[in-house]
Amino acid sequence: MQFALLIYHSPAEFGMRKNDYNDPHLGAWRAYYKALVEAGVYVGANALEVPETGTTVRLKEGKRSVQDGPFADTKEQLAGFIILELPTVDAALEWAARCPGAAIGAVEVRPLAPEAMRRGFTG
Amino acid sequence: MNESNREDTHRTIERVARESYGRLVAYLSANTRDLGSAEDALSNALVAALTSWPRDGVPQNPEAWLLTTARHSFINQVRHRQVAEASEPTLLLSREDSAEMTLSPEFPDERLKLLFVCAHPAIDSAIHTPLMLQTVLGLDAARIAHTFLISPATMGQRLVRAKTKIRDGGIQFEVPQERELPQRLDAVLEAIYAAFGIGWDGMAGVDQRGRDLAEEAIWLARVLLQLMPGEAEVRGLLTLMLHCEARRAARRGPDGRYVPLLEQDSQQWSLALIEEAERHLAEASSRGRAGRFQLEAAIQSVHAERARSGRTEWAAIALFYEQLIRISPTLGTRTGYAAALGEAYGPEAGLAALDGIDPENVSAYQPYWAVRAHLLQRLGKTSEAANSFDRAIGLAEDPAVRQFLLQRRG
Fold this sequence. Notes:
heterodimer; A: alpha+beta; Alpha-Beta Plaits; four-stranded antiparallel sheet; two-stranded antiparallel sheet; 6 strands; 33% strand; flat; B: mainly alpha
């Protein structure tokens, strides 16, 4: 069964991002990634740019509406996601607790939609 | 009634609820095995106390008052259900059903039976501890869920399912026979220890889950000891937890930094708790049956010795681990043994012991990687050590532990 760990950061956390790849902060994420891969549960992951770089598009009654910034106007914003293959939600919660993001923001654990449904739109 | 009196009364209610919860639930449910209804009845009684005690004053015997009130509510509930289900024409409640509702302050303490029911082999062992915390200590499902890292809704459902099984599944409220006692007692002890949080401070990078419940776990062990004063393993468990608790203040630096056991300032350890622990351990060993918890307690006792002697007898710790592995060859025990060998006889000895563990089992076991990293670093194998540090860092849950390991990794 696949689970998404959706990682949410506060503005302060986004603000601390540096492009220094020796940042100790990144060390924790690198180690976490390594632990996921070695445990054989890693499927995929990616990080997102800061929320201000987002642009939100809607089509309202045929009219385009384009808005600067992220979709939801909340304090904590989506910062990245990790997809894991695990037997139970309990195991997913355990990995979420170990995620460096859990200590500085929040990690939502959400099962992926059933395989059949996903195949429904990928064909 | 003025505000401060009202506060006093609320505090009294809280105290009575905390101290009497398990006794009342155990007594109310012993005949019917209906834990859910017993808890509901007790909550109703506590709500009633919140309105009537501030108004009329705290009764002479608060516990008896709660029991009488809870019983009324309990009998109504059970009757209601039995009528609804149209089963069992006779009430199971003959003892409670007497018209005489006044109660002597003395009523039998059924908590021991309740503890054995909570850790019954017919109930999923993962729910043993949550069930005890709820029925004996009155903790709510949400708080328990946080500690066990389960969603509160799921925890609630699992608790309800377990209680239904106890009510309908013919699980008897009794202390097991001599023959099966050791095994059943183990399950009770395990459940209490799980509440305490496993592997509190054995080595760098510990699993911190459950530490919020440490006090409750110690309370449970004290209750159990009061009910079974002759069981050496109960004392062993209490000793183990008291030793760990004694180090609480030393476990973190002033800045919240994680301090591993070996670097803790033993001046900060609680001598009172250490002395209490040692008394229990001496009493337990005089009974001559060494068990798993007594051995773990003995290991902690050797560590505690450093407060007096200034040094740690690692060879003694390794010996206790050797005995422990014979009884309980868990990952934790084997990792602890390797760490002790590493300190007593050098890092190669420790690594050899780690290499004896099946790698399949350690891919998500944090302490193994922390110990391995430490031993490799002592051997000067920097890049292998860094690799193991990464695994330990990636598996760490506590940010302070993560930070500590990141610094050690360099």
